[in-house]
Amino acid sequence: MSELRADNVTLGYDGPDVVEGLSVEVRQGEITCIVGPNGCGKSTLLRSLARMMRPKGGAVYLDGADIFGLPTREVARSLGILPQTPTAPEGLTVRELAAQGRYPHQGWLRQWSKEDERAVEGALDTTGVRELADRPLDTLSGGQRQRAWIAMALAQETETLLLDEPTTYLDMAHALEVLQLLERLNREEGRTILMVLHDLNNASRFSHNIVALSGGRVFASGEPREVITPELLAEVFSVEADFVTDPRTGAPLCVPYGLRRAGGKAAGEDE
């Protein structure tokens, strides 16, 4: 399996650094979620791990080599990437989108093959979009489109998938549809999955490990029960919450009831 880690990375755009001196290792064969408030560096970190953003300092390593020193096709054979708001040409069908996932495996001496066809058809089956294969993406529901994009990533036949907020703009049913698909890919095929999620309860339910960021640094990391705590909600999100145990998974679930304010009381709480 491909080993992926960030070592003491500093990341930023034109202004102040967004991430500073951050180290994280993506555990192989497991689902890891990155969580944190808006602007804490979640998507920025994922972009760097996906070789889409070069660190100002430190390095990202893929199988022990600096990822920015590796050929693009080699990285694409190891990492399947789904950005937060992917775009495709108008009229592109689901099958055509999935076929784009085979480009890293092609070259001057290797054109479209039966192996490529097998990979695409397998990805359509795995994601449950075969019946939609000939439909344009812009005619699909949000959940169907996300599954189609995941099919493209699966067609790459990478061991690791990186997804930036794969449930954004989806209602509860479609979000569960996508998360359960990713859970099945991990359980049945051993795929390593790293994703950014906003919903802490979904992160707790569907992940083996959680990395919580705050101010561009790792606030806590570990199993959900070690990370999703009253302290995390209060200090990172400024939220007061009650906690219950998921009766099916044993993971912690939070029930927010107010914003934290000075003095440790929740906004609206009786004096």
Automatic annotation (TrEMBL):
Keywords: ATP-binding, Cell membrane, Ion transport, Iron, Iron transport, Membrane, Nucleotide-binding, Transport. It is found in: Cell membrane. Transmembrane segments: none annotated. CDD domains: ABC_Iron-Siderophores_B12_Hemin (cd03214). Pfam families: ABC_tran (PF00005). PROSITE patterns: ABC_TRANSPORTER_1, ABC_TRANSPORTER_2. SUPFAM superfamilies: P-loop containing nucleoside triphosphate hydrolases. It comes from the Bacteria. The keyword Ion transport applies. It is a peripheral membrane protein. The keyword Cell membrane applies. Its main location: membrane. GO terms for molecular function: ATP binding; ATP hydrolysis activity. One of its GO terms (biological process) is iron ion transport. GO terms for cellular component: plasma membrane. InterPro entries: AAA+_ATPase (IPR003593), ABC_transporter-like_ATP-bd (IPR003439), ABC_transporter-like_CS (IPR017871), P-loop_NTPase (IPR027417), Siderophore_ABC-ATPase (IPR051535). Residues 4-240 form the ABC transporter domain. This is ATP-binding cassette domain-containing protein. It comes from Rubrobacter marinus.
